[in-house]
From TrEMBL:
<dbReference type="InterPro" id="IPR000644">
    <property type="entry name" value="CBS_dom"/>
</dbReference>
<dbReference type="InterPro" id="IPR046342">
    <property type="entry name" value="CBS_dom_sf"/>
</dbReference>
<feature type="domain" description="CBS">
    <location>
        <begin position="6"/>
        <end position="67"/>
    </location>
</feature>
<keyword id="KW-0129">CBS domain</keyword>
<dbReference type="Pfam" id="PF00571">
    <property type="entry name" value="CBS"/>
</dbReference>
<protein>
    <submittedName>
        <fullName>CBS domain-containing protein</fullName>
    </submittedName>
</protein>
Amino acid sequence: MRARDLMTDFPTVTLDTSALDAARLLAERDLPGLIVIDGDGRPHSILPGTQVLRLAVPAYCQDDPALARVVDEAHADLFLRRLGTRTVRESLPAQPRELPVADPKATVLELAALMARTHSPLVAIVEAGRVAGAVTLQSLLDHTLTI
């Protein structure tokens, strides 16, 4: 099976999309991450949902989980509001990594290796310089576990 057989349409965001809108899109569509495109519609990066959380969760709670326990429930439930006016650009890692992008002819093993190497829950499938869709970890596992 090839990437073109597993790929599905997938939403994209830009670097200037608000991080809160990105979080809403992740939640509404139950996505593992988002494809971030540049001004020309080419893939710039993959934004895993965990990166959005990293921006929203206070650093002191990430550094010391015991401190997260002392925040009362009413305030703990509102942590995503910390995203405020921040953008997707601010959610991305400072040091870019290998971009998880593949050709529609990539095999399932190539996709799996790319996901593993880049720690990405999805791979953007690019054809003629544009995002044609994506293959998610879930669809890859669903396919390989049924063989």
